[in-house]
Structure formats: structure tokens, C-alpha cells
Amino acid sequence: MIRLLLALALLGGGASDRPDILWIVVDDMSANLGCYGEKTIETPNLDRLAREGTRFTRAYTTAPVCSPSRSALITGCYQTSIGAHQHRSGRGAEKIRLPEGVETVPALLRKAGYRTSITSWPATKAQGKTDYNFEWDPAIYGGSDGPSFTQVQLHGGKHRDGRGLSEAVKKALVTLTSPDVVKLPPYYPDDPVIRRDWANYLDAVRYTDLQVGEILKTVDAAKTLVFFITDHGISHARGKQFLYDEGLHIPMIVRGPGVAANATRTDLVEHIDLAAATLAAAGVAIPAPMRAKDILAKDYQARDAVFAARDRCDETVERLRSVRTSKWKYIRNFFPKRPHLQPNQYKDGKPTLRRLRELHGSGELKGLPEQLLFAPERAPEELYDLEADPFETKNLADVQPEVLKDLRARLDAWMKETGDRGFESPAMYDSDMAVYLAEKKEPAARKTLEDNIALMKRWAAEGK
């Protein structure tokens, strides 16, 4: 019955010149799809979606972790501009409210006569993942008449965790990807544990492809504008939570009325641009505070750079900012005295992170993995030539002074123009840490979290 109700929502109801709109938003997944050049696995449903629509090869999230990314997407604003940039913030006594004039996409569409909903797949009575870092009215989702705006949230890379693949994935796929065929980036050691974890991730991608195929069967292709996107990249040591392309580069595919078929776009786009494209397709004016751009507009002016930010993730205090052009990536580390892999109770439970720390501790980790992942300090500024060095392993900040100066100024201007809200107050940190601690029932996990919080405060007191 629930599946039928969702199908009715996706298929729309009643005549309208405005399209039904479907967002498929996936957790923790990079562009490891056949249509993006992945050779290890096959993703026939997403490849077909790309053939029937437009594939964006240079789409980037503005935040490499769930809640800031989703807060930005649903408002079309940079998370740093609306105070939603600290991961899982505003959950305690201290609250975050949207600035005046900023509204969510579902709220704007409801005012315009759309039925709005958010669900998971397979659909249940429970609401799909929101994960917004600000106070919001549940009434933004609802309605019974008019065209539909539906969000389907998929677990994606989260189908693999510290215990391996979920049983649902194993049952659906039957045959699993062999770790022997995995090709790892050069900054990870060729280790069987890490290979197995990456193979599990690829099988989570395959399972996501199956789910997308099921969802698309419920869609009226002639009248539905479909957006497929992930919130950020793979959850690994240089992916999720970090501003390298492993964390920021995402797949983006759009199909539907007025969208070119079998087309490829190579211009730079940000994930928040879905907000503006959605409103424009629905005939809704794009609000002035929105920084998203209608990437489907006939008069669209392409971006010449994209920006991103990473701030506190769970208990781990951090502040990173980046600007990326077609050729260059500039990253600013606001805490250069801290290591790249600061302690983090959530990520340190992942198989790859556990194994990396084991290899580092035993002295077995060598070369790039040791150099890039476990240096005790970081350069204040990083600069990468993405054409010559797509894996971002050679920091050119000391040898490209003119490029460095230009991108440094561009980042400064963006932060000022967009009202970057910067560091989190001690009161907000303590408010949210109280919630984190209350949720940790298992003694060992709680102790790790308490130790990490104490370390963050000690480093701050030391000016580190």
C-alpha cells in the first residue's frame, strides 16, 4: 500500500502545465557509475537515465558531509551563509533559525500549489532523511492537490559499514564484487582490508542502481523532471568530511521535459543549483538570498569556480574552505597545527580508518598514505593542478605564487560576499555535544567521545 501511495505521488495528479519534480538524493556516494567511467561495476539504470537526460561531469557539493550539504541543498544557499555549516548542529538547547528571506524549496513549492513529500525507498510511513541544521516547520511537506515534488532518500554508501555489507544488499545482488579487481587511489595502501571495504562500497553503488531502476518504473517520464544527485562523496580518509575531489565531486543527472537527451555538460556546477532549477521549472521566482543558479535556463551563465566548506563534524572541530576552477583547487586550513585525520568517533569506526591507523601505528604505512594522511601538521594553504594531478597529491602552494594569490583573493571575496559565519561558539558546541553524549549508550563509544571532546577543548586552549 505504501509503495502504491508513493507511485501515485510520483505519477502526479490532475492536469498541469507544470512538471512533477523528483529528487533522488543518495548518501555517501561518489561518481563511481558506468556513465562516469567506472569500469569495475555496471550501473545500467543510472547509465540509462544519463542517456535519456543530461549528465553533469563537474558537479560539486558545497559541503562534504550530510547535514550541511542537505541544509544548503534544501535552501539553495551556502551552508556558511545561513549558519548551518557545523555538522548536526542546533540539536540541543541552542537553536539555529534561517535568516530572514530564506525559505526551503518545499515551502516555496507548497505556496505555489505543489504537493510535497520526502520518503525513503522502499517507501515506509516514516519520513525520509531531512538532516537540516535549522529549525523548520514539518508542514513544508504535505498537500493533496496539484503537481508533485517528491524527494526519495537512498542510503547509498551507508549500506556498507563496520560490519560490511547489509543483508539487503547481499540478497539483492547475489554475486558480490571481488576485492581483487578494485583499483584504489594512490594515497591509500594496497591492503586487503581496504580493498574489501572499497569492494563493499562498489556493491552499495550497484544496489543503489537497482533501487533507482525500481523508482523510475513509478515515474511518468513524459511529465516528470528527475534529478539524481548524491550529498557528498565516498566515506573514506580523503573523501567524506574533506575538500578533496573524493569528498566533493558528485554525480548529477537530470532527465525530463525540456532537458536534452544523451547530453553531457562539463561546466562547473554546485549541488545547490538543483534548488534554483527546480523552482524555475515550477514557475516559482528564485528568491534574492538564494545563491543557487538555474542550470537549465536558456540564458544560464556558467560558473567559473565552485566553493566548498567543511566545519565541525560530530565532536571534531575543523574549518576548511576551498575554491575550485577547471584547472586549480585551493584549500585553506584554518587549523594547520592539527593533523589531517583528527580523532573522530564516527569515522574511526570505519574499516578503512581502523586499518589505516593500525598500519600507521605499526610503522607499516609508507609513501603517500603516510605522508598525506598522518603528517602531524598540515600546510596552511594547499594548491593543486587538477589537470596534471587529479588525485591532489602535490601541493604547489610554494611554486605557483601568482595562482595562489589569485585563488586566495577569490576565496576571501567569496567568504565576505556570502557572509561566511565562521567559527562555532563554545556555547553552541557544548549544547550539541550534550546531545551527542546523551545518544551514546555503549560505554566504550561514550568514553571515546568524551576523550575527543576534551582533546578538542585542550587544543583550542593551546591555540592549536
Write up what this structure looks like.
By secondary structure, the protein is of the alpha/beta class. The protein has 13 helices and 14 strands. Strands 1, 2, 3, 4, 7, 8, 9 and 10 form an eight-stranded mixed sheet that branches. A four-stranded antiparallel sheet has the order 11-12-13-14, covered by helices on one side. Strand 5 and strand 6 (164-165) form a beta hairpin.
Structural descriptors:
single chain, about 475 residues, alpha/beta, eight-stranded mixed beta sheet, four-stranded antiparallel beta sheet
Instruction: Give the class from helix and strand content and strand pairing.
Output: alpha/beta
- Rg (CA only): 21 Å
Order of helices and strands: HEHEHHEEEEHHEHEEEHEEEHHEHHH
Strand proportion, as a percent range, falls in 15-25%
* Largest sheet geometry: 8 strands, mixed
The best one-word shape is: globular
N-to-C CA distance: 56 Å
- How much helix is in the residues? 25-40%
Mean pLDDT: 95
Total beta strands: 14
> Poorly predicted ranges (pLDDT <50, ≥5 residues)?
none
Helical stretch tally: 13
Question: What topology does this entry show?
Answer:
Layout: H1 2-11, E1 20-26, H2 44-52, E2 54-60, H3 66-75, H4 105-111, E3 115-120, E4 148-154, E5 160-161, E6 164-165, H5 167-173, H6 192-217, E7 224-230, H7 245-248, E8 249-255, E9 263-265, E10 269-270, H8 273-281, E11 306-310, E12 320-324, E13 328-333, H9 351-361, H10 367-373, E14 381-385, H11 401-417, H12 426-439, H13 443-461
Parallel strand pairs: 1-4, 1-7, 2-9, 2-10, 3-4
Antiparallel strand pairs: 2-8, 5-6, 7-8, 11-12, 12-13, 13-14
